[in-house]
Amino acid sequence: MAGPPLTDSKHGRVLSGRRVLAATGAATALVCAPGVPATAGQLPASTHAVAAPRVVPAPASLRTLPGVSFTLTRKTKIVARPGSGTAGGYLAGILRRSTGYPIPVTGAGGSRGAISLVVSRHEKGEAYHLAVTKASVRLEAGSAEGLFRGVQTLRQLLPPAIESPTVKPGPWTMPGVEVADSPRFAWRGTMLDVARHFFTIQQVERYIDQAALYKINTLHLHLSDDQGWRIAIDGWPRLATYGGSTAVGGGKGGHYTQADYTAIVRYAAARYMTIVPEIDGPGHTNAALASYAQLNCDGKAPPLYTGTDVGFSSWCIAKPVTYELLNDVLGQLARLTPGPYLHIGGDEAHSTTAADYATFIEKVGPIVGKYGKKMVGWNEIGAAKIPPGSVAQYWNTAKGSEGGTQTARDAVAQGAKVVMSPANHAYLDMKYDQSTPLGQDWAGLIEVRDSYEWDPATLVDGVTEKDVLGVEAPLWSETIVTNDNIDYMTFPRLPAIAEIGWSPQARRSWDDFRVRLAAQGPRWSAMSVNFYRSPQVPWPAS
Ligand code: TNX
Question: Which residue's C-alpha comes closest to atom 10 of ligand 1?
Fold first, then answer.
Protein backbone atom coordinates (compact mmCIF):
# COMPACT_ATOMS: atom_id res chain seq x y z
CA MET A 1 0.00 0.00 0.00
CA ALA A 2 2.01 2.94 -1.22
CA GLY A 3 -0.50 5.78 -1.25
CA PRO A 4 0.67 9.35 -1.59
CA PRO A 5 1.38 11.32 1.60
CA LEU A 6 -1.68 13.20 2.76
CA THR A 7 -0.34 16.68 2.24
CA ASP A 8 1.17 15.83 -1.13
CA SER A 9 -2.09 16.60 -2.88
CA LYS A 10 -2.91 15.72 -6.43
CA HIS A 11 -2.52 19.41 -7.20
CA GLY A 12 1.09 19.14 -6.16
CA ARG A 13 1.03 22.34 -4.16
CA VAL A 14 2.45 21.03 -0.93
CA LEU A 15 6.09 21.56 -0.26
CA SER A 16 8.51 18.78 0.32
CA GLY A 17 9.96 20.77 3.22
CA ARG A 18 6.89 19.99 5.31
CA ARG A 19 7.37 16.33 4.80
CA VAL A 20 10.90 16.55 6.10
CA LEU A 21 9.69 18.43 9.15
CA ALA A 22 6.89 15.95 9.62
CA ALA A 23 9.26 13.04 9.66
CA THR A 24 11.08 14.59 12.60
CA GLY A 25 7.81 15.02 14.45
CA ALA A 26 8.12 18.83 14.40
CA ALA A 27 5.24 19.31 12.02
CA THR A 28 5.30 23.02 11.44
CA ALA A 29 5.06 25.25 8.45
CA LEU A 30 5.29 28.99 8.25
CA VAL A 31 2.12 30.77 7.28
CA CYS A 32 0.72 34.23 7.69
CA ALA A 33 -1.37 34.79 10.75
CA PRO A 34 -3.07 38.01 11.76
CA GLY A 35 -2.35 39.47 15.14
CA VAL A 36 1.22 38.25 15.47
CA PRO A 37 3.69 41.14 15.12
CA ALA A 38 6.67 40.44 12.87
CA THR A 39 10.10 41.35 14.13
CA ALA A 40 12.21 43.23 11.60
CA GLY A 41 15.01 41.18 10.16
CA GLN A 42 13.41 37.88 11.12
CA LEU A 43 11.08 35.80 9.02
CA PRO A 44 8.84 37.29 6.32
CA ALA A 45 6.04 39.60 7.47
CA SER A 46 3.69 38.42 10.23
CA THR A 47 4.60 34.80 10.45
CA HIS A 48 4.44 32.23 13.12
CA ALA A 49 4.51 28.49 13.12
CA VAL A 50 1.25 26.82 12.18
CA ALA A 51 1.09 23.05 12.11
CA ALA A 52 0.64 21.50 8.70
CA PRO A 53 -2.61 19.56 8.41
CA ARG A 54 -2.38 16.12 9.97
CA VAL A 55 -5.88 14.70 9.70
CA VAL A 56 -7.05 11.19 10.67
CA PRO A 57 -8.79 9.58 8.84
CA ALA A 58 -7.02 10.88 5.72
CA PRO A 59 -9.48 12.95 3.67
CA ALA A 60 -10.11 11.79 0.12
CA SER A 61 -8.48 15.01 -1.03
CA LEU A 62 -6.72 17.76 0.90
CA ARG A 63 -4.96 20.72 -0.64
CA THR A 64 -2.93 23.08 1.50
CA LEU A 65 -3.10 26.76 0.51
CA PRO A 66 0.45 28.02 1.00
CA GLY A 67 0.72 31.21 3.01
CA VAL A 68 -2.95 31.17 3.99
CA SER A 69 -4.36 30.70 7.47
CA PHE A 70 -7.39 31.52 9.61
CA THR A 71 -7.20 32.48 13.26
CA LEU A 72 -10.03 32.29 15.79
CA THR A 73 -10.54 35.48 17.79
CA ARG A 74 -12.84 36.70 20.55
CA LYS A 75 -15.14 37.85 17.72
CA THR A 76 -15.36 34.56 15.84
CA LYS A 77 -18.88 33.28 15.39
CA ILE A 78 -20.38 30.17 13.89
CA VAL A 79 -23.08 30.72 11.31
CA ALA A 80 -25.02 27.46 11.23
CA ARG A 81 -27.51 27.65 8.39
CA PRO A 82 -30.88 25.89 8.67
CA GLY A 83 -30.62 22.11 8.53
CA SER A 84 -27.15 21.94 10.03
CA GLY A 85 -28.35 19.93 13.02
CA THR A 86 -26.04 19.63 16.02
CA ALA A 87 -22.80 20.41 14.14
CA GLY A 88 -22.64 24.12 15.09
CA GLY A 89 -23.43 23.63 18.76
CA TYR A 90 -21.02 20.72 19.05
CA LEU A 91 -18.18 22.68 17.49
CA ALA A 92 -18.93 25.77 19.60
CA GLY A 93 -18.88 23.64 22.76
CA ILE A 94 -15.36 22.44 21.98
CA LEU A 95 -14.03 25.84 20.92
CA ARG A 96 -15.49 27.74 23.89
CA ARG A 97 -13.89 25.52 26.53
CA SER A 98 -10.32 25.92 25.35
CA THR A 99 -10.35 29.39 23.78
CA GLY A 100 -12.53 31.05 26.39
CA TYR A 101 -14.13 33.01 23.52
CA PRO A 102 -17.91 33.39 23.43
CA ILE A 103 -18.24 31.78 19.93
CA PRO A 104 -21.94 32.50 19.40
CA VAL A 105 -23.88 30.22 17.05
CA THR A 106 -26.33 32.06 14.82
CA GLY A 107 -28.66 30.85 12.08
CA ALA A 108 -27.84 33.69 9.72
CA GLY A 109 -25.24 36.37 9.16
CA GLY A 110 -22.27 37.30 7.03
CA SER A 111 -19.55 34.77 6.43
CA ARG A 112 -16.57 37.15 6.80
CA GLY A 113 -14.50 36.17 9.80
CA ALA A 114 -16.99 33.40 10.58
CA ILE A 115 -17.15 29.64 10.45
CA SER A 116 -20.13 28.90 8.20
CA LEU A 117 -21.89 25.54 8.17
CA VAL A 118 -24.04 25.11 5.11
CA VAL A 119 -26.25 22.27 3.89
CA SER A 120 -25.93 22.22 0.14
CA ARG A 121 -27.48 20.31 -2.72
CA HIS A 122 -24.02 19.79 -4.22
CA GLU A 123 -22.94 17.23 -1.63
CA LYS A 124 -24.48 13.88 -0.67
CA GLY A 125 -24.82 11.98 2.60
CA GLU A 126 -21.68 12.19 4.72
CA ALA A 127 -19.63 13.91 2.02
CA TYR A 128 -18.43 17.40 2.86
CA HIS A 129 -16.29 20.20 1.49
CA LEU A 130 -14.19 22.42 3.75
CA ALA A 131 -12.44 25.62 2.71
CA VAL A 132 -10.23 27.44 5.21
CA THR A 133 -9.16 30.79 3.77
CA LYS A 134 -7.82 34.01 5.23
CA ALA A 135 -11.27 35.56 5.45
CA SER A 136 -13.46 32.67 6.52
CA VAL A 137 -14.05 29.00 7.12
CA ARG A 138 -16.77 27.42 5.03
CA LEU A 139 -18.00 23.88 5.59
CA GLU A 140 -20.57 22.50 3.19
CA ALA A 141 -22.28 19.14 3.21
CA GLY A 142 -25.38 17.50 1.83
CA SER A 143 -26.69 16.76 5.33
CA ALA A 144 -26.22 17.65 8.97
CA GLU A 145 -24.40 14.35 9.33
CA GLY A 146 -21.89 15.40 6.69
CA LEU A 147 -21.36 18.71 8.50
CA PHE A 148 -20.69 16.82 11.72
CA ARG A 149 -18.04 14.70 9.97
CA GLY A 150 -16.47 17.83 8.49
CA VAL A 151 -16.36 19.44 11.94
CA GLN A 152 -14.03 16.61 13.01
CA THR A 153 -11.60 17.57 10.25
CA LEU A 154 -11.86 21.22 11.24
CA ARG A 155 -10.99 20.38 14.88
CA GLN A 156 -7.87 18.58 13.78
CA LEU A 157 -6.64 21.62 11.83
CA LEU A 158 -6.50 23.62 15.07
CA PRO A 159 -3.66 23.25 17.61
CA PRO A 160 -3.97 20.24 19.96
CA ALA A 161 -4.80 22.45 22.95
CA ILE A 162 -8.16 23.16 21.29
CA GLU A 163 -9.23 19.86 22.90
CA SER A 164 -8.41 21.10 26.39
CA PRO A 165 -11.34 21.26 28.83
CA THR A 166 -9.91 24.48 30.28
CA VAL A 167 -8.89 27.84 28.77
CA LYS A 168 -5.48 27.86 27.06
CA PRO A 169 -3.57 30.77 25.53
CA GLY A 170 -3.70 30.05 21.78
CA PRO A 171 -3.10 31.45 19.15
CA TRP A 172 -5.85 29.43 17.49
CA THR A 173 -4.65 29.32 13.91
CA MET A 174 -5.48 26.77 11.23
CA PRO A 175 -3.65 26.36 7.96
CA GLY A 176 -5.49 27.32 4.79
CA VAL A 177 -6.86 24.18 3.15
CA GLU A 178 -9.40 22.92 0.74
CA VAL A 179 -10.76 19.51 1.62
CA ALA A 180 -13.18 17.41 -0.45
CA ASP A 181 -14.05 14.27 1.44
CA SER A 182 -16.45 11.35 1.66
CA PRO A 183 -16.33 7.89 3.26
CA ARG A 184 -15.31 4.63 1.61
CA PHE A 185 -17.70 2.53 3.73
CA ALA A 186 -21.07 3.23 5.34
CA TRP A 187 -20.41 1.28 8.59
CA ARG A 188 -17.44 2.54 10.57
CA GLY A 189 -17.95 0.98 13.91
CA THR A 190 -16.61 0.15 17.28
CA MET A 191 -18.05 -2.18 19.92
CA LEU A 192 -18.11 -1.90 23.67
CA ASP A 193 -18.56 -5.15 25.61
CA VAL A 194 -20.62 -3.87 28.53
CA ALA A 195 -21.40 -7.48 29.52
CA ARG A 196 -18.04 -8.78 30.81
CA HIS A 197 -17.62 -5.53 32.70
CA PHE A 198 -20.36 -2.95 32.96
CA PHE A 199 -19.71 0.61 31.86
CA THR A 200 -21.83 3.54 33.07
CA ILE A 201 -23.74 5.90 30.80
CA GLN A 202 -21.02 8.50 31.38
CA GLN A 203 -18.31 6.05 30.34
CA VAL A 204 -20.20 5.12 27.17
CA GLU A 205 -20.75 8.79 26.36
CA ARG A 206 -17.07 9.54 26.82
CA TYR A 207 -16.26 6.71 24.42
CA ILE A 208 -18.80 8.03 21.89
CA ASP A 209 -17.14 11.46 21.89
CA GLN A 210 -13.67 9.97 21.48
CA ALA A 211 -14.81 7.78 18.58
CA ALA A 212 -16.74 10.61 16.91
CA LEU A 213 -13.48 12.54 16.48
CA TYR A 214 -12.40 9.84 14.02
CA LYS A 215 -15.71 9.80 12.11
CA ILE A 216 -16.88 6.53 13.67
CA ASN A 217 -20.64 6.35 13.01
CA THR A 218 -21.72 3.04 14.58
CA LEU A 219 -21.54 1.92 18.21
CA HIS A 220 -22.32 -1.75 18.76
CA LEU A 221 -23.22 -2.49 22.38
CA HIS A 222 -22.66 -6.12 23.44
CA LEU A 223 -25.51 -6.10 25.98
CA SER A 224 -25.54 -9.71 27.12
CA ASP A 225 -23.12 -12.55 27.69
CA ASP A 226 -22.44 -15.37 30.15
CA GLN A 227 -21.25 -12.93 32.79
CA GLY A 228 -23.96 -10.30 32.62
CA TRP A 229 -27.27 -9.13 31.16
CA ARG A 230 -27.19 -5.34 30.91
CA ILE A 231 -30.60 -4.08 29.74
CA ALA A 232 -33.87 -4.06 31.68
CA ILE A 233 -36.62 -5.96 29.86
CA ASP A 234 -40.29 -5.46 30.78
CA GLY A 235 -41.87 -8.73 31.88
CA TRP A 236 -38.48 -10.35 32.60
CA PRO A 237 -37.08 -8.26 35.45
CA ARG A 238 -34.61 -10.84 36.77
CA LEU A 239 -32.55 -10.70 33.54
CA ALA A 240 -31.16 -7.34 34.64
CA THR A 241 -31.56 -7.43 38.42
CA TYR A 242 -30.07 -10.91 38.87
CA GLY A 243 -28.43 -11.69 35.51
CA GLY A 244 -26.83 -8.24 35.53
CA SER A 245 -25.73 -8.34 39.15
CA THR A 246 -22.15 -9.39 38.58
CA ALA A 247 -19.24 -9.31 36.10
CA VAL A 248 -15.97 -11.02 35.25
CA GLY A 249 -14.00 -11.38 38.47
CA GLY A 250 -17.15 -11.18 40.61
CA GLY A 251 -17.56 -7.39 40.68
CA LYS A 252 -20.92 -5.77 41.21
CA GLY A 253 -22.08 -5.56 37.59
CA GLY A 254 -24.92 -3.25 36.64
CA HIS A 255 -27.49 -2.67 33.94
CA TYR A 256 -29.17 0.06 31.93
CA THR A 257 -32.79 0.88 32.53
CA GLN A 258 -34.68 1.47 29.29
CA ALA A 259 -34.46 5.21 30.05
CA ASP A 260 -30.67 4.88 30.43
CA TYR A 261 -30.44 3.08 27.11
CA THR A 262 -32.57 5.77 25.47
CA ALA A 263 -30.23 8.43 26.89
CA ILE A 264 -27.28 6.65 25.24
CA VAL A 265 -29.16 6.36 21.95
CA ARG A 266 -29.94 10.09 22.04
CA TYR A 267 -26.39 11.06 22.94
CA ALA A 268 -25.10 8.96 20.04
CA ALA A 269 -27.73 10.33 17.65
CA ALA A 270 -26.62 13.90 18.41
CA ARG A 271 -23.19 12.74 17.15
CA TYR A 272 -24.74 11.00 14.11
CA MET A 273 -23.81 7.64 15.55
CA THR A 274 -26.09 4.62 15.24
CA ILE A 275 -26.45 2.27 18.20
CA VAL A 276 -26.53 -1.44 17.32
CA PRO A 277 -27.71 -3.45 20.34
CA GLU A 278 -26.59 -7.08 20.61
CA ILE A 279 -28.30 -9.85 22.53
CA ASP A 280 -25.94 -12.78 22.06
CA GLY A 281 -27.28 -16.31 21.47
CA PRO A 282 -27.62 -19.24 21.35
CA GLY A 283 -24.25 -19.35 23.16
CA HIS A 284 -23.03 -16.72 25.64
CA THR A 285 -26.36 -16.95 27.47
CA ASN A 286 -25.49 -18.07 31.00
CA ALA A 287 -26.60 -14.83 32.68
CA ALA A 288 -30.12 -15.22 31.26
CA LEU A 289 -30.25 -18.97 31.91
CA ALA A 290 -29.25 -18.29 35.53
CA SER A 291 -32.05 -15.73 35.88
CA TYR A 292 -34.99 -17.95 34.83
CA ALA A 293 -34.99 -21.71 35.44
CA GLN A 294 -37.69 -22.26 32.81
CA LEU A 295 -35.31 -21.16 30.03
CA ASN A 296 -33.17 -24.25 30.64
CA CYS A 297 -33.86 -27.60 28.93
CA ASP A 298 -33.64 -29.34 32.31
CA GLY A 299 -35.63 -26.65 34.13
CA LYS A 300 -32.72 -25.90 36.45
CA ALA A 301 -31.00 -22.53 36.62
CA PRO A 302 -27.19 -22.67 36.53
CA PRO A 303 -25.25 -20.43 38.92
CA LEU A 304 -24.08 -16.97 37.82
CA TYR A 305 -20.70 -17.08 36.08
CA THR A 306 -17.79 -14.71 36.60
CA GLY A 307 -14.96 -16.49 34.74
CA THR A 308 -13.76 -15.91 31.16
CA ASP A 309 -14.41 -19.23 29.39
CA VAL A 310 -16.56 -19.17 26.27
CA GLY A 311 -18.79 -21.74 24.59
CA PHE A 312 -20.36 -23.56 27.57
CA SER A 313 -23.92 -22.17 27.53
CA SER A 314 -26.84 -22.48 25.11
CA TRP A 315 -30.43 -21.35 24.85
CA CYS A 316 -32.78 -24.35 24.94
CA ILE A 317 -33.55 -24.51 21.20
CA ALA A 318 -36.61 -26.77 21.50
CA LYS A 319 -38.50 -24.76 24.13
CA PRO A 320 -41.08 -22.19 22.98
CA VAL A 321 -40.28 -20.02 26.01
CA THR A 322 -36.87 -19.25 24.43
CA TYR A 323 -38.62 -17.49 21.53
CA GLU A 324 -41.23 -15.87 23.79
CA LEU A 325 -38.35 -14.27 25.66
CA LEU A 326 -36.51 -13.25 22.49
CA ASN A 327 -39.70 -11.87 21.01
CA ASP A 328 -40.08 -9.61 24.04
CA VAL A 329 -36.40 -8.65 24.18
CA LEU A 330 -36.01 -7.92 20.46
CA GLY A 331 -39.40 -6.20 20.27
CA GLN A 332 -38.51 -3.87 23.14
CA LEU A 333 -35.03 -3.18 21.78
CA ALA A 334 -36.46 -2.48 18.32
CA ARG A 335 -38.81 0.08 19.84
CA LEU A 336 -35.98 1.77 21.76
CA THR A 337 -33.49 1.74 18.87
CA PRO A 338 -33.99 4.13 15.93
CA GLY A 339 -31.19 2.52 13.88
CA PRO A 340 -31.98 -0.23 11.37
CA TYR A 341 -30.12 -3.12 13.04
CA LEU A 342 -30.53 -5.67 15.82
CA HIS A 343 -27.49 -7.89 16.47
CA ILE A 344 -28.40 -11.43 17.53
CA GLY A 345 -24.87 -12.69 18.25
CA GLY A 346 -24.45 -16.22 16.97
CA ASP A 347 -20.75 -16.65 17.80
CA GLU A 348 -18.97 -19.55 19.48
CA ALA A 349 -22.08 -21.70 20.03
CA HIS A 350 -19.93 -24.67 21.02
CA SER A 351 -22.66 -26.19 23.20
CA THR A 352 -25.35 -26.09 20.51
CA THR A 353 -25.52 -28.76 17.77
CA ALA A 354 -25.18 -27.55 14.19
CA ALA A 355 -28.80 -28.49 13.49
CA ASP A 356 -30.04 -26.66 16.60
CA TYR A 357 -27.91 -23.65 15.68
CA ALA A 358 -29.52 -23.47 12.23
CA THR A 359 -32.99 -23.86 13.76
CA PHE A 360 -32.28 -21.05 16.20
CA ILE A 361 -31.03 -18.56 13.58
CA GLU A 362 -33.95 -19.42 11.30
CA LYS A 363 -36.42 -18.68 14.10
CA VAL A 364 -34.77 -15.46 15.23
CA GLY A 365 -34.33 -13.92 11.75
CA PRO A 366 -38.10 -13.51 11.22
CA ILE A 367 -38.54 -12.05 14.73
CA VAL A 368 -36.01 -9.32 13.88
CA GLY A 369 -37.77 -8.77 10.54
CA LYS A 370 -41.19 -8.57 12.19
CA TYR A 371 -39.98 -5.56 14.19
CA GLY A 372 -38.79 -3.82 11.05
CA LYS A 373 -35.07 -4.35 11.64
CA LYS A 374 -32.22 -6.02 9.79
CA MET A 375 -30.47 -8.91 11.48
CA VAL A 376 -26.78 -8.65 12.26
CA GLY A 377 -24.87 -11.68 13.52
CA TRP A 378 -21.29 -12.90 13.83
CA ASN A 379 -20.12 -14.67 10.65
CA GLU A 380 -21.27 -18.13 11.83
CA ILE A 381 -24.85 -17.12 10.92
CA GLY A 382 -23.90 -17.64 7.26
CA ALA A 383 -24.15 -21.39 7.90
CA ALA A 384 -27.90 -21.01 8.50
CA LYS A 385 -30.67 -19.57 6.37
CA ILE A 386 -30.70 -15.82 6.90
CA PRO A 387 -33.03 -13.14 5.52
CA PRO A 388 -31.64 -11.15 2.58
CA GLY A 389 -30.38 -7.78 3.79
CA SER A 390 -28.81 -9.35 6.88
CA VAL A 391 -25.30 -8.41 7.98
CA ALA A 392 -22.57 -10.92 8.86
CA GLN A 393 -19.80 -9.60 11.09
CA TYR A 394 -16.58 -11.36 10.18
CA TRP A 395 -14.43 -11.93 13.26
CA ASN A 396 -12.28 -14.93 12.37
CA THR A 397 -8.53 -14.62 11.90
CA ALA A 398 -8.36 -16.64 8.67
CA LYS A 399 -7.51 -15.05 5.33
CA GLY A 400 -8.19 -15.98 1.70
CA SER A 401 -10.18 -19.21 1.67
CA GLU A 402 -8.94 -20.70 4.94
CA GLY A 403 -11.12 -22.00 7.76
CA GLY A 404 -13.78 -19.60 9.00
CA THR A 405 -14.07 -17.66 5.77
CA GLN A 406 -16.68 -19.99 4.24
CA THR A 407 -19.51 -18.73 6.46
CA ALA A 408 -18.81 -15.16 5.29
CA ARG A 409 -19.10 -16.30 1.65
CA ASP A 410 -22.26 -18.26 2.54
CA ALA A 411 -23.77 -15.12 4.03
CA VAL A 412 -22.92 -13.07 0.93
CA ALA A 413 -24.46 -15.78 -1.28
CA GLN A 414 -27.72 -15.21 0.63
CA GLY A 415 -27.67 -11.49 -0.04
CA ALA A 416 -25.96 -10.38 3.14
CA LYS A 417 -23.34 -7.66 3.53
CA VAL A 418 -20.24 -8.13 5.64
CA VAL A 419 -18.80 -5.97 8.41
CA MET A 420 -15.12 -6.76 8.77
CA SER A 421 -13.76 -7.21 12.30
CA PRO A 422 -10.93 -9.72 11.79
CA ALA A 423 -9.74 -10.52 15.30
CA ASN A 424 -6.04 -10.43 14.36
CA HIS A 425 -6.32 -6.85 13.03
CA ALA A 426 -9.41 -5.19 14.50
CA TYR A 427 -9.79 -6.53 18.04
CA LEU A 428 -9.02 -3.79 20.54
CA ASP A 429 -8.67 -6.28 23.39
CA MET A 430 -5.61 -7.98 21.92
CA LYS A 431 -2.28 -7.05 23.50
CA TYR A 432 0.04 -4.76 21.53
CA ASP A 433 3.10 -6.77 22.52
CA GLN A 434 4.03 -9.33 25.14
CA SER A 435 4.42 -6.68 27.83
CA THR A 436 0.95 -5.11 27.45
CA PRO A 437 -0.56 -5.35 30.94
CA LEU A 438 -4.17 -5.69 29.72
CA GLY A 439 -5.94 -7.79 27.14
CA GLN A 440 -5.66 -11.21 25.55
CA ASP A 441 -3.46 -12.74 22.86
CA TRP A 442 -5.46 -15.62 21.38
CA ALA A 443 -5.73 -13.80 18.03
CA GLY A 444 -2.10 -12.64 18.20
CA LEU A 445 -0.33 -9.48 19.26
CA ILE A 446 -1.64 -6.42 17.42
CA GLU A 447 0.72 -3.46 17.17
CA VAL A 448 -0.64 -0.31 15.55
CA ARG A 449 0.79 -1.22 12.15
CA ASP A 450 -0.98 -4.62 12.26
CA SER A 451 -4.27 -2.89 12.96
CA TYR A 452 -3.70 -0.54 9.99
CA GLU A 453 -2.24 -2.66 7.20
CA TRP A 454 -5.10 -4.69 5.77
CA ASP A 455 -7.82 -4.12 3.23
CA PRO A 456 -11.41 -5.15 3.99
CA ALA A 457 -12.03 -5.74 0.27
CA THR A 458 -9.28 -8.35 -0.20
CA LEU A 459 -9.11 -10.15 3.17
CA VAL A 460 -11.58 -12.95 2.43
CA ASP A 461 -11.79 -14.64 -0.98
CA GLY A 462 -15.22 -14.12 -2.50
CA VAL A 463 -16.01 -11.10 -0.31
CA THR A 464 -15.24 -8.03 -2.36
CA GLU A 465 -15.63 -4.27 -1.97
CA LYS A 466 -19.29 -4.32 -2.98
CA ASP A 467 -20.08 -6.97 -0.34
CA VAL A 468 -18.40 -5.06 2.46
CA LEU A 469 -20.64 -2.73 4.46
CA GLY A 470 -17.73 -1.55 6.54
CA VAL A 471 -15.38 -2.21 9.44
CA GLU A 472 -15.69 -2.46 13.19
CA ALA A 473 -13.20 -2.57 16.04
CA PRO A 474 -14.64 -4.47 19.03
CA LEU A 475 -13.41 -3.85 22.57
CA TRP A 476 -14.11 -7.03 24.55
CA SER A 477 -13.87 -6.27 28.23
CA GLU A 478 -12.77 -9.37 30.13
CA THR A 479 -9.68 -7.41 31.28
CA ILE A 480 -11.04 -3.88 30.82
CA VAL A 481 -12.47 -2.08 33.84
CA THR A 482 -11.61 1.64 33.96
CA ASN A 483 -11.61 4.56 31.53
CA ASP A 484 -7.82 4.36 31.52
CA ASN A 485 -8.08 0.70 30.48
CA ILE A 486 -10.53 1.56 27.69
CA ASP A 487 -8.33 4.40 26.44
CA TYR A 488 -5.15 2.35 26.47
CA MET A 489 -6.47 -0.44 24.26
CA THR A 490 -8.51 1.86 22.00
CA PHE A 491 -5.90 4.50 21.21
CA PRO A 492 -4.15 4.47 18.80
CA ARG A 493 -5.81 1.42 17.22
CA LEU A 494 -9.35 2.71 16.80
CA PRO A 495 -8.14 5.63 14.62
CA ALA A 496 -6.34 3.04 12.45
CA ILE A 497 -9.56 1.09 11.90
CA ALA A 498 -11.48 4.34 11.43
CA GLU A 499 -9.12 5.32 8.62
CA ILE A 500 -9.56 1.92 6.94
CA GLY A 501 -13.30 2.53 7.04
CA TRP A 502 -13.24 6.12 5.83
CA SER A 503 -10.28 6.79 3.54
CA PRO A 504 -9.85 5.62 -0.05
CA GLN A 505 -7.55 2.60 -0.11
CA ALA A 506 -5.27 4.36 -2.60
CA ARG A 507 -4.64 7.19 -0.11
CA ARG A 508 -3.58 4.92 2.71
CA SER A 509 0.02 4.13 3.54
CA TRP A 510 1.59 3.25 6.87
CA ASP A 511 4.46 5.72 6.45
CA ASP A 512 2.04 8.57 6.00
CA PHE A 513 -0.44 7.37 8.61
CA ARG A 514 2.12 7.06 11.41
CA VAL A 515 3.07 10.72 11.01
CA ARG A 516 -0.55 11.89 11.05
CA LEU A 517 -1.22 9.57 13.98
CA ALA A 518 1.71 11.05 15.88
CA ALA A 519 0.00 14.44 15.67
CA GLN A 520 -2.99 13.00 17.55
CA GLY A 521 -0.87 12.27 20.65
CA PRO A 522 -0.90 15.86 21.97
CA ARG A 523 -4.66 15.99 21.30
CA TRP A 524 -5.19 12.88 23.41
CA SER A 525 -3.01 14.38 26.11
CA ALA A 526 -5.19 17.51 26.06
CA MET A 527 -8.28 15.27 26.35
CA SER A 528 -6.70 13.17 29.16
CA VAL A 529 -6.84 10.05 27.00
CA ASN A 530 -4.48 7.42 28.40
CA PHE A 531 -3.16 6.24 25.03
CA TYR A 532 -0.52 3.60 24.31
CA ARG A 533 2.71 5.27 23.19
CA SER A 534 3.55 2.75 20.50
CA PRO A 535 7.23 2.72 19.52
CA GLN A 536 6.07 2.46 15.91
CA VAL A 537 4.76 6.05 15.97
CA PRO A 538 7.00 9.18 15.94
CA TRP A 539 5.22 10.98 18.80
CA PRO A 540 6.35 14.57 19.19
CA ALA A 541 8.49 15.21 22.25
CA SER A 542 6.43 16.77 25.03
C1 TNX B 1 -14.13 -14.09 21.19
S2 TNX B 1 -15.05 -13.05 18.79
C3 TNX B 1 -15.44 -13.72 21.43
C4 TNX B 1 -15.76 -13.01 22.67
C5 TNX B 1 -14.56 -12.80 23.54
C6 TNX B 1 -13.38 -12.43 22.69
C7 TNX B 1 -12.16 -12.10 23.49
C8 TNX B 1 -16.40 -13.35 19.30
C9 TNX B 1 -17.47 -13.09 18.38
N10 TNX B 1 -16.48 -13.82 20.55
O11 TNX B 1 -16.76 -13.73 23.37
O12 TNX B 1 -14.86 -11.78 24.44
O13 TNX B 1 -13.09 -13.50 21.83
O14 TNX B 1 -11.12 -11.65 22.67
Answer: 347
